[in-house]
Design goal:
Distance between the termini: 111 Å
Low-confidence stretches: 1-19
Shape: rod-shaped
Helix content: over 70%
Largest sheet: none
Number of strands: 0
């Protein structure tokens, strides 16, 4: 359990910083393996697996940002840690398949990929719906503005006609001598 605590602490630290240390992925894998030893159900290690996926995604994003770092030390560290993490990940996959049945890890990855795809599609749909709503609102307010302008013109015509009628009314002939 102690490894899981270290993994949780490193997760909190990583959310603050931008650079994702490859060692953090190793800690997440170690935490998941430690929890796997005592787990009776896949639900017992679900949070640890989620943390592992999260760290892996953050590391991939950080690696893209850090491509400009060409120092030998950085390159060696990144390559070695990446290979070690891949080996650890494969060992974790095998351990999960051994404990919960062959294909469990593949099913987890497949379901996660499917859910991420659905979430991305929902995000795109929501953005599209928001854009359509904004367009509809803009069209509505454009229509309201147009009709308010037309109503204003009508009021101006009525006011001018009323003013002209008033002027004619006050200048009318009343005594017969106009």
């Amino acid at each position: 359990m102690e490894v899981a605590k270290v993994s949780d602490a490193s997760c909190a630290e990583q959310e603050v910083g931008e650079y994702m240390d490859p060692i953090t992925i190793g800690l997440a894998i170690a935490g998941a393996k430690k929890l796997l030893e005592t787990a009776t159900d896949i639900k017992d290690i679900a949070a640890s697996i989620e943390q592992l996926f999260s760290h892996t995604e953050k590391a991939a994003k950080a690696a893209k940002k850090a491509e400009g770092d060409t120092s030998i030390k950085s390159v060696v560290t990144d390559v070695i840690e990446d290979r070690n993490n891949q080996a650890r990940m494969r060992n974790l996959e095998i351990d999960i398949d051994d404990k919960f049945g062959f294909g469990t890890w593949a099913a987890i990855k497949e379901e996660r990929t499917r859910r991420l795809k659905v979430a991305e599609e929902n995000k795109v749909k929501a953005a599209k719906a928001l854009k359509e709503k904004q367009q509809a609102d803009k069209e509505f307010w454009d229509r309201v503005t147009y009709w308010l302008g037309e109503f204003g013109k009508l009021l101006a015509i009525i006011a001018l006609a009323g003013g002209a009628g008033y002027i004619i009314w006050i200048n009318r002939c009343v005594d017969g001598a106009c």
